[in-house]
Design goal:
It is flat and about 105 Å long. The protein has helices at residues 3-18, 28-37, 40-47, 163-167, 243-278, 317-326, 347-353, 358-371, 474-481, 502-523, 532-537, 539-551, 557-567, 586-594, 597-603, and strands at residues 88-97, 116-123, 126-129, 133-134, 142-148, 173-180, 186-194, 206-214, 223-234, 290-292, 298-300, 328-329, 355-356, 376-382, 388-395, 401-404, 411-414, 436-441, 446-449, 469-471, 572-581, 608-620, 626-637. It has four domains: 3-46, no CATH class; 85-152 and 160-241, Immunoglobulin-like, CATH 2.60.40.150; 255-333 and 341-481, C8orf32 fold (Roll); 502-637, CAP (Pathogenesis-related Protein p14a, 3-Layer(aba) Sandwich), CATH 3.40.33.10. The strands form six sheets. The protein has a seven-stranded antiparallel beta sheet with strand order 17-16-15-14-18-19-20, covered by helices on one side. Strands 2, 3, 4, 6 and 7 form a five-stranded antiparallel beta sheet that branches. The longest helix has 36 residues, at 243-278. It is 28% helix and 23% strand. Belongs to the CEP76 family.
């Protein structure tokens, strides 16, 4: 509507017309009358949508679009839940400066693909995402986010939170900056915790901040850029606090947190000394008490896990395992050669980037399984060749121990080998890839493996037996890892529903693949004839593959085989090749397919009456995760 522009014009006009030379100022009433006369106020009231229906908190929202006035011609206004009885923090991002890495970046031409920055926010169970802006030295961020302060049974829900109540809310606004390149690959640029309560002590309840974003991992001491941020309370505060009161509160919280962390560190050192006294060889076991997050801050590992409910987005623990498995795997980037750069990510950074290391996957899967009421732990140990690895374990009430691999989605039952049995006795054959285990932990418990051998095969998971597992004091763990225990703990965000349209995306990838196959065959001097009916018949197979991955149950294969037999006439041969990806880049998928001799044989098939088929099926999961199944097939007349 461009309200501001129109109001400015009318005010200028009113002042010119109505200010007699002897009258030096107009009252607010005069100006409002002038606006009413010209119908501006009515227009604005029509455009605002007040919706008072309270959405059940069980439904995690999809990333909210910033609430702002939009031009009616360009987009339809989205309704936003503004409840006039609630207190909001209006956070505006007004551009960025000094993103020096993009100093040489040329101006993108209209319509040309370019790398973009996206800002993701999380505050008290609400998530937002900015519009993508082209990467530049001064990225053009202009977004406003309306964050509800007054959430989750904060005292009396009918009363509006006052300054003092809000001063006690220590949750920061977690901001994550993601860069997406032209191939849709994402990188984590910065992760920042914004302390918003300075606005409570500022005049008029409005404050402007410049936020310096630091890099991640090995670059956590290097500045990546600056964001200009404006904070405003809505409705405006009746009384603001003095800046001194706000600063004192923040200093007290920091002091309390520092003291709790110091005491835990003293306890952890003592625990480690005792652990080493059991057996000197324990020194080489993978007992991980602290881990560095993306900002290079050491945090107790138990703080990376918390029971997490997926609302209605995931129905079963196995579906949750599938969701974690389709999130991309990427080791933390390291400059130069050498060892593995270790970096555990906060959950928001992992979800926004949509990929992470094995520890990130294990922490998320463990959190989801705890949410489903299972007794779940993250295990830290090694795979073959001594490669450090993390996976998840659940302990059943009947004593069964199940390993869940968070990267592959596989589940393994663990039956320990008894080393004291005679050689002739039959021992269970382990199918899992894990070799050693140093410790297990969840949000409340930390246990170090103190059995004579740390081999997984012989390990006994009787976690209550202190001669096998040395526990940490639960109260000590809680003092720094329980939600709200310290202000330095990043709050866990809710999961968001997928924004990807499965059928549209499936169609797009399928069309691109048809084109790529035709071009490839043309280069080989071959013609391409597609058979749509055969392509359609491949759908049930793809659906049953995904169903099997999610449930470990195979179903519906007989019908698929029967349909194919009917579709392929006598004397013809049918070949099919299914393959699975977790990304949506058709060109990259095609290049991978060609590396498989089976698939290459189908795509480059020569013969009489060759008919080709390809079917793509995208299965969406929360966040932007998806499983992409592709099947190439051909039928031709066998001439021998």
């Amino acid at each position: 509507m461009d309200v501001h522009g129109r109001i400015r014009e009318i005010l200028a006009e009113t002042i010119r017309e109505e200010l007699a030379p002897d009258q030096q100022q107009l009252s607010t009433e005069d100006l409002i009358k002038a606006l009413k006369r010209r119908g501006i106020i009515d227009d604005v009231m029509k455009e605002l949508n007040f919706v008072t229906d309270n959405v059940d908190q069980e439904l995690p929202s999809s990333p909210k679009q910033p609430v702002c006035f939009t031009d009616r011609q360009s987009t339809l206004l989205k309704k936003t839940n503004i409840d006039p009885t609630r207190r909001y923090l209006y956070l505006q991002v007004l551009g960025g400066k000094a993103f020096l890495e993009h100093l040489q970046e040329p101006e993108p031409l209209p319509g040309q693909a370019c790398s973009t920055f996206t800002l993701c926010l999380h505050f008290r169970n609400q998530r937002f995402r900015s519009k993508p802006v082209p990467c530049a030295c001064e990225p053009d961020f202009h977004d406003g986010f309306l964050l509800e302060v007054h959430r989750e049974n904060l005292g009396d829900g009918t009363r509006m939170a006052d300054s003092t109540t809000m001063l006690s809310i220590s949750d920061p606004v977690h901001m994550v900056l993601i860069k997406t390149d032209i191939f849709a690959e994402t990188t984590l640029v910065a992760s920042y915790f914004l302390e918003w309560r300075s606005v409570l002590g500022s005049e008029n309840g409005v404050t402007n901040l410049t936020v310096e974003l630091m890099g991640v991992g090995t670059e956590s001491k290097v500045s990546v850029g600056i964001l200009n941020i404006k904070l405003e309370m809505y409705p405006p505060l009746n009384q603001t606090l003095s800046q001194e009161v706000v600063n004192t509160q923040l200093a007290l919280e920091r002091q309390k947190t520092a003291e709790k962390e110091r005491l835990f560190l003293v306890y952890a050192k003592q625990w480690w000394r005792e652990y080493l006294q059991i057996r000197p060889s324990h020194n080489s076991r993978l007992v991980k008490i602290f881990a560095q997050d993306e900002n290079g801050i050491n945090r107790p590992v138990c703080s990376y896990v918390k029971p997490l409910r997926a609302g209605r987005l995931l129905d079963t623990p196995r579906q949750a395992a599938r969701f974690v498995n389709v999130l991309g795997y990427e080791r933390a980037p390291v400059i130069g050669g050498g060892g593995k750069q270790e970096q555990w990510c906060t959950l928001l950074a992992f979800l926004c980037r949509n990929k992470g290391d094995c520890e990130d996957h294990a922490n998320l899967l463990c959190s989801l399984l705890l949410g489903y009421g299972l007794e779940a732990f993250v295990c830290v140990g090694t795979k073959a060749k001594g490669v450090p690895h993390a996976w998840v374990m659940t302990c059943g009430t009947d004593g069964t121990v199940t390993f869940w691999d968070s990267l592959t989605g596989h589940r393994y039952l663990h039956k320990p080998i008894n080393p004291d049995e005679p050689p002739a006795a039959e021992q269970p054959k382990p199918l899992y890839p894990y070799r050693t285990i140093g410790c297990v932990f969840n949000h409340q418990t930390f246990l170090g493996n103190c059995q004579p051998s740390d081999s997984v095969e012989t390990c006994v998971f009787d976690l209550n037996d202190e001669s096998k597992w040395k526990p940490m004091n639960e109260e000590a763990v809680k003092s720094v890892c329980a939600p709200g225990a310290t202000t330095s703990l990043p709050p866990f965000p809710p999961l968001c529903a997928s924004t990807i349209d499965a059928s549209v995306t499936s169609n797009e990838i399928e069309m691109q693949l048809r084109l790529l196959v035709s071009e490839h065959r043309k280069d080989l001097g071959l013609t391409t004839v597609w058979e749509d009916q055969l392509s359609y018949l491949l759908s049930p197979a793809l659906a049953s593959y995904e169903f099997e991955r999610t449930t470990s149950i195979s179903a519906g294969n007989e019908e698929f085989q029967d349909a194919i037999r009917r579709a392929v006439p006598d004397g013809h041969t049918f070949k099919g090749f299914p393959i699975h990806f977790v990304y949506r880049n058709a060109r990259r998928a095609f290049a991978t397919c060609l590396r498989s001799p089976f698939c290459e044989e189908i795509i480059c098939c020569r013969g009489d009456q060759v008919r080709l088929a390809v079917r793509v099926r995208v299965f969406t999961y929360p966040e932007s995760a998806c499983a992409v199944w592709i099947m190439f097939a051909c039928k031709y007349r066998s001439v021998l």
